[in-house]
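Work Package 4 report. The design task specified in the project plan requires that, given a folded chain encoded as structure tokens, an amino acid be chosen for each position. We show below one input record used in the internal validation round.
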């Protein structure tokens, strides 16, 4: 099986997409991440859901998890409000990761190797310069484990 067989349409965001909108998209569709497009509609990066969380979770709670325990439950449930008017641009790590992109002919093993090397739960699939969709870790494992 090839990437063309496993790729599905996948939501995308841009650098200027509100971070809260990205978080809602991740939650509503139960996604591991989103494909970030540049100004020309080409994949720029993968935005893992954990990067959105890093922006929303107060820094003091990230640095010292014991401090997160002292926040009462009513306020703890509202932490995503910290995203406010922030954008996806602000969610990106300082050191961008290798962009996991492949072509239509990549094999399942090539996809798995790319996911493992880039530590990404999804791979963007391109046909020349056009984004076709993505292969998720879940769909890859579902296929590989069919015995």
């Amino acid at each position: 099986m090839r990437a063309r067989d496993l790729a599905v349409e996948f939501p995308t965001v841009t650098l200027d997409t509100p971070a809260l909108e990205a978080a809602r998209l991740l939650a509503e569709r139960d996604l591991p991440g989103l494909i970030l497009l540049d100004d020309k509609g080409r994949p720029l990066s993968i935005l893992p859901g954990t990067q959105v969380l890093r922006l929303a979770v107060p820094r003091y709670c990230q640095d010292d998890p014991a401090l997160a325990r002292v926040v009462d439950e009513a306020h703890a449930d509202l932490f995503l409000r910290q995203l406010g008017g922030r954008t996806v641009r602000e969610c990106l790590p300082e050191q961008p990761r290798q962009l996991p992109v492949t072509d239509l002919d990549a094999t399942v093993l090539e996809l798995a190797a790319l996911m493992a090397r880039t530590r990404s739960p999804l791979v963007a699939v391109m046909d020349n310069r056009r984004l076709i969709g993505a292969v998720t870790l879940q769909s890859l494992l579902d296929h590989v484990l069919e015995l």
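The mean pLDDT is 86. Validation will be extended to a larger panel in the next phase.
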